[in-house]
Amino acid sequence: MTSPPRSNTGPARQSPDLGRTPATHSRIQSLSGARLQRHADYQRAYAGSRKRQSASMSWFLALQQPAYASAPLPVRPRVGLTAGKVLGKAHERNRIKRRMREALRRHIEMLHQGFDLILHPRRIVLTLEFGKLEAEIVRILHQARVDAERISQQARRS
Hints:
Helix content is 35%, strand content 13%. The longest helix is centred in the C-terminal third of the chain and has 28 residues, at 130-157. Strands 1-2-4-3 form a four-stranded mixed β-sheet, sandwiched between helices. Strand 3 (78-81), helix 2 (90-107) and strand 4 (115-121) form a beta-alpha-beta unit. The chain has helices spanning 39-47, 90-107, 130-157, and strands at 51-53, 57-63, 78-81, 115-121. It has three helices and four strands.
């Protein structure tokens, strides 16, 4: 016995974007314009901030400063990621950074304009469930926004 021929009358395939809510699908396609890239930018951010801790990473928030006297300030808030050799081999460090970049890309609009944020992950980020990593980054971005508003108000007063 043979089975009847298949027909293409079954349910149509849905596009991968259908049914997604704005919270899970960001407008921003890349963090390329919002990343700290120069060593001097990292050093200025470290000098202008203090270290804060969360469950799986430490982070620094600093008011953006021009690279030199007449340099313009960056147009967007910027984020820097570090992953030292203590976190593991190169492929593990790269995976940590990829996971963090994706979580940041989805929520970068939460970061206050005019600030730089640097994240230092711990090794647990490698095995942490992505939803938990994303939730922690959202908590950090929320706390960074609160701190940025406080810093901005203090700067306006002085």
